[in-house]
Amino acid sequence: MTASVSLPPVAEAARRALPAFVRAREQMMWIGGRQVAAASGRTLPNTDPATEEALAGVPRGEAADVDAAVRAARAAFTDPAWAGMSPDRRGRILNRIADVIEKHADELATIDSVNMGAPHRVTTHMLAEASETFRYYAGWPTKLSGVAVPAGNDHMLYTRKEPLGVVGVIWAWNGPMGQLPGKLAPALAAGNTVVLKPAETASLSTLRLAELLATTDLPAGVVNVVTGLGSEAGQALVGHPGVAKIAFTGSTATGKAVQRLATDTLKRVTLELGGKSPSVVFADADLDAAARGVAAGFLGNAGQACVAGSRVFVEEGIREEFVQKLLKTMEAAFTPGDPLTPGTLVGPVSNKAQFDRVSSYLDIARQEGANVVTGGGRFGDHGYFIAPTLLDNVRPGMRVVREEIFGPVGVLSTFTDLDDAIAQANDTDYGLAASVWTTNLTTAHRMAAAIEAGTVWVNSWGQMSTGNLPFGGYKQSGLGYEGGLEGLDAYTQAKAVRITL
Ligand code: TXE
C-alpha cells in the first residue's frame, strides 16, 4: 500500500464542479442576522487536504467578535419574536431547517469533503443524520412540559422547563456537519439562542449552513457564527459571562481546559471527547462481517472518529485466520482515494497538523517496539494521506495503545476468554464506544453490560443515532449526553412555581 495517489479523472471533474462557495476569496461570519468580517479584518486559511490547495479563507474572529455575537444572541433570546414564539411554530422551523439541509445535502457534504477530507460517502451520511436529528427534535417543543406537583388545597405547585439563554457551541473538524446537529437542534428546540464556533480548519460548511438558515423563519440573532482559533474565539466564548452553557466536541485535553474556564462563571458544560474504543472479535463471530466492521472501525473517516475502534482484540484461536481476512478487506475496500471519488472509504487526514501528529505516532510505535503488519507511513506523495496501518506485538502500556492517534491506525492483540476480553477492553482512560462481534447471545449481553462505554455495538460498528438515542462518554470520554431526551434536558433548566391560593 505505497502507491502514489493521483486524482482519478472523475475526481478532477468533481473538483472543477465544486460549489463556488469553497473558492470565494473570503467568507463572512454571521452576527445578529448580518454577514460581517472579523473586527480585526484578519482571516485564516483553509486547505483542501487531498490536494494541499488553498480554499476560501475564513474570518479570524476574536474576543470583540465573540462579544458582539453574544450580545446579538442575548437580544434575540428575550425578543418576543423568539421568546414569545409558540412551541408548534418553533417545531415547524426545526422541520424547515431539516428540509433545507436535505435540499442542500450534496452541496454541504461536498464542502466538508473538500474542506476536511472525509469521503463524500461519509459526509453524505452525516448530512442525512443531520436532517433526521432536526426532525427528531422538531417534535419536542410541543412536548417539553413541566409537571403539576401534588399539594394541599392552599397551594398549587408546578414546574416549568425553561431554556438556559445563550449557548456557545464549539466543535471539531472531523465531522463539522456530523457533530453540530446534536447540539444545535436541541438548543433551538428548547428555545435557546446560540453562538457557533466551528473548527478553524473546517468552517466552510457552517458558514454555508448559516446562509441557508437565513432563508428559514429563524429570527435574526438566534443563530450566530464566529469563526476563529480555539485559543482566541473559542476561549473568549467559554469565558464570556453572557453565555449560559458550552456544548463542546474535541480532544479530552481541550475539554478539560474548557470545563476549567467555564467554572469561573458556573456555566453548564457538556463535553464529547476522545476515545480509544475496543473492537472485540470472538471465535464464534461471522469473521467476514467482523473483518469489514473492524476495518471500518479504525479506518473509517481515516480513523478520525471519536468512536474509532482503534484497539482490536481477537480471540486467540482465530488470530491468524482473522488477520488474513482483515488485511484482505483493508486492501480491497480501504485503500485511500480522493474523497470526491464515489466509493472512496478512506481519504486524507484532515489537516497538516493532524498529518504530522499521526506520522509522529507511527514513529513512536516503532520506537516502542510494535510490529507494523501493514502501512506505517505516508500514502502517496501529495495530500495528507496516511496508509491504513495495523500494528501488533503491542503491550498495554504503550502510548499507541493508550493514546488517541486519530488516524487510520489500529493496534491488535489477543484475548483468552470473556473475562480477559472485558479486562483488556476496559483497560483505558476512555469510554466512548465499543463493538463486539459474536453470534452467542450470552456473550453479547455479558459484554454489553460489562464494557465501560457510552455506546456498545454488537455485530456492527459506527451506526450513529438520528437524534433518538443518548450519546455520551464514560470515564474521560465526556460529560453529559447528546441525543434523546437526555440531550434535550441538557439545554433546559427547571423552575419551581409555588402559588398560594
Ligand atoms: O482538538 P481541539 P485539535 C483529538 C484528536 C486530535 C486531537 C487534537 O486526538 O488529534 O484531539 O485536535 C476549539 N477554548 N480530537 O487540537 O483543540 C478548536 O478551535 C475553547 C478528538 O484540533 O480539541 C476546535 O473548534 N475552544 C475529537 C475545537 O476546540 C478551543 C475531535 C476542537 O479542537 C480551545 C477533535 C480553547 N482553549 C480532536 N482550544 C473527537 N472527540 O472526535 C481549541 N478549541
UniProtKB/TrEMBL annotation:
The active site is at 272. Pfam families: Aldedh (PF00171). InterPro entries: Ald_DH/histidinol_DH (IPR016161), Ald_DH_C (IPR016163), Ald_DH_CS_CYS (IPR016160), Ald_DH_CS_GLU (IPR029510), Ald_DH_N (IPR016162), Aldehyde_DH_dom (IPR015590). Residues 39-497 form the Aldehyde dehydrogenase domain. Keywords: Oxidoreductase. It comes from the Bacteria. PANTHER family: ALDEHYDE DEHYDROGENASE-RELATED. Belongs to the aldehyde dehydrogenase family. This is Aldehyde dehydrogenase family protein. It comes from Streptomyces broussonetiae.
